[in-house]
Amino acid sequence: MSDISAYVPRKEDFRLKNETEELGLDSNFASQNFWKEVVIRFFNKRSAVIGLVLILLIILFAAIGPGMNDYTYEGMIQEEKNLAPRVSWLEKFGIFDGSETMTTSVGDMEVNKYEDAGLTDTYYWFGSDIYGRDLWTRCWSGTRVSLIIAIAAAFIDMLIGMSYGLISGFFGGKVDMVMQRFLEICNGIPRLVIVTLLLLILKPGMLTIIFALLLTEWVGMSRIARAEMLKLKEQEFVLASRTLGAGSFFIIFKEVLPNIVGPVITQVMFSIPTAIFTEAFLSFVGLGIPVPKCSLGSLISDGYNSFTTHPYQIIPPIIIMALLMLSFNLLGDGLREAFDPKMKEM
Amino acid sequence: MKKYVLKRVLTSIGTLLAIVLVLFILMHLMPGSPFNDEKLTDVQREVIYAKYGLDDPIVVQFGRYVVNMCKGDFGVSYKISKNTPISQLIETRLPISIGIGFYAVARGAVIGLILGLLAALKRDTIIDTVCTIVSVIGVSVPSYVFALGLSYTLGFKWKIFPMLYDSADALGSSVMPSIALSMFTMASIARFTRTEMIEVLGSEYMLLAESKGLSGTKLIFTHALRNALIPIITVLAPLVVDLMTGSLVVEKIFAIPGVGSLLVNAIQSNDYNVVIALSFIYSAMYIVIMLVVDILYGIIDPRIRLGKEGD
């Protein structure tokens, strides 16, 4: 004991816990517009910007890609099927020169079908498929279809889910009880089952897929809207509006709604990749867009049938889809942090 | 606690009944019957309808339907293998699918936990960045893309694992499908663990434990990880659903004789009875898992059940 009492603590014995650069930096900021701050925070996050740029690029190609050469998405040329990718300015370097490695029983061999068939002036940038259709055109028109489906589904479910959640949260009591029990039952049915069954009784097509997607996606959106409403409805500005004689629907859609735009937009960004994935899955199972139209999912499904012999047919749609889903996830993450800096990334 | 469990069980039963009703209505709405053969005369059709009980009033059919579903009797398959009871078809396939799903969840959870833990402990270092990139890719890329990639490289080029399912080598054949399926689970759990760990590590009780002089491993495993694990249970239920959807396509790619590929076949050949039986099984499994997770969560974290009883 005497040892301890005799010990005189030195400065080096102590070290400050959680010493970071932010500690003690207490600076004043001029008050700023909310949206301006959101934009600044968003552009400070590199991954989110990468996501945004990728999405814009893909949308650009989906818009102009199919028109960049003379092929159409449904035009079949019997003599020019299963051609490997060939790009005019890259073939000098020995890549994308239209040759592919065929694995046969006697071993691997390199063939160039363009030369064999005497097609010296034909270029398929992504190759052509088993019916002789240009994969470049098909990929980008497929991307267009997938994007339209996903974005339409996400926005319609935003409208439905948001209204449902806001109304349920605002009125509370019995209304909320009934609406929440209904939602629990809807949520208890696996998405897979709803979509599959719906597509069995309706004719496959773009509208059906959008309908199936929005039936399954609105639950998440309504939960977020309800939670936000419960937080906001006790606040003074709602009381003030009510005192001034505003009706319930005015308060819900004009007073509260503008204050929850952030979480809602974030949720939309996350439901778009889910929609793209579900559409791709449906195509793979055979319930997707009817031929000759195509989507990313149906292209992957077509390419799958010959992916051991002609792997180049499945690679472009897979890469586009993976990039699309990745960038929407990155964008969603970035937006969430930009709207709510207190929330940590998940 | 009892009240909470009872409420959850009742909701689950209600959901299941609602599903059976939806399935039953859908079955009657579906276009094209398996007996849509033009060669059949009216008399022959009546005989077939009577044989399968399709000429009874709707209410009687529904009552019989609910009773049969609960007994596990789903009727017979009309198309895929004629007149075979569906329960018999499912009996052999369900264990295969559950086995692969179990491998996938177990592998995904363990690797995800390790990745998330590493990322949180080595925050803002290169390890953290790598873990984050891996988990973002895992969440974004659909499982069948991984399946195709694995099947092409490991299966077709290098021939390490069989490309198609081989019942003689069940363990080896389920390696690739379960890896493909586990990617999403792994990535989600890694992200979630990282967030939770960072929050726990910054809490005041961790500061107290550290200033008491506890060793590093004890600090992390008994104090931090245990508290971080609690919320992770909640993500397991949605993960199982994604696993179900993923398994359909992955089973098709690897030609696995499981329930997923049976469902795909049934959809494509309009075998309604099989589709409905499988939808029922999928829904029932999902509801049971949700129920178990909710009750488990209520036991572990009393705030949840108190909060729910409160409203």
Structure commentary:
The complex is a heterodimer of chains A (about 350) and B (about 300). Chain A has about 350 residues and is mostly helical. Chain A has helices spanning about 1-5, 35-45, 45-65, 115, 135-170, 175-190, 190-200, 205-230, 235-245, 250-255, 260-285, 295-305, 315-340; strands at about 100-105, 105-110. In chain A, helix 3 crosses helix 5 (about 135-170) and helix 5 crosses helix 12. The two termini of chain A are about 50 Å apart. The model of chain A has no long low-confidence stretch (mean pLDDT about 80). Chain B is mostly helical. Chain B has a domain at about 85-270: MetI-like fold (Orthogonal Bundle). Helices cover about 80% and strands about 0% of the residues of chain B. Chain B contains 13 helices and no strands. Chain B has helices at about 1-30, 40-50, 60-70, 85-120, 125-140, 145-155, 170-175, 175-200, 205-210, 215-255, 260-270, 270-300, 300-310. In chain B, helix 6 (about 145-155) packs across helix 8. The longest helix of chain B is centred in the C-terminal third of the chain and has 38 residues, at about 215-255. Chain B starts with a helix and ends with a helix. The relative contact order of chain B is 0.14. The model of chain B has no long low-confidence stretch (mean pLDDT about 80). At the A-B interface, helix 6, helix 7, helix 11 and helix 13 of A face helix 1, helix 5, helix 6, helix 8 and helix 9 of B.
